[in-house]
Amino acid sequence: MKQLKYIITIAFAGLLLASCHKLDIAPLNLIQDKDVFANENGVTAYMATIYKALPIEDFYYRNEGGNGGNGFNRGWEQFYHPGALCGELVGPYGSTYDGAGGFGYWPYADIRTVNYLLENLPKNAANFPKEKIDQWLGEAHFCRAYFYFALVKRYGGIPIIRNVQNYPGQTLEELQVHRDKELDVWKFVASDLDSAYLLMPEKSVRARANRYVAAALKSRAMLYAGTIAKYGAANFVAGDARDQGYVGIPASEAAGFFKQAWDAAKLLEGHYSLYAKKLDDKEQNYVDVFLDQDSPENILVRDYSLTSNTAHSWDATMTCRYMTADGLSRAYPTLEFVERFAGQLPVVNTDGTPRRFNNTAELMQGVEPRLLATVYFPGASLRGLQFDTQRGIYEHFTGTAAAELGLNPPNGPFRHLSGTTNALWPDDNGKRIIGFTGISTNDDDRTRTGFYVRKYVDYKREQSQCGLYMSTQSWIDMRYAEVLLNRAEAAFEMGNTTDAVTVINQIRDRAGATPATAAITIDTIRNERCKELAFEKQYWWDLRRWRIADQVLDNTRFHALMPYYLYDEKKYIFLREIEPFQRSYTFEKKYYYEPLPGGELGKNPNLYPNNPNF
Amino acid sequence: MHKIIKAWLIGCGVIALASCTKTDNMPGPNAGFQGRLLDVTNSKNNFVTETNGVQVKLEELSWSATPTPQYIPSKPDGSFEDTKLFGGHYRVTPTAGAFWPVDPVELDINGLTTHDFELMPYLKITNFSHRLSGDTLIMSLNLVAPKTEGLPTIIDLQPFVNNTKFVGAGANISQYTTPTDQSKKNIISINSNWSDAIAQTTYVVKVPDLIHGRTFYARVGVRVNDSYKQFNYSEIVEIQVP
Question: Dihedral angle at the C-alpha atoms of A477, A251, A197, A36, nearest 10 degrees?
Answer without folding.
Answer: -70
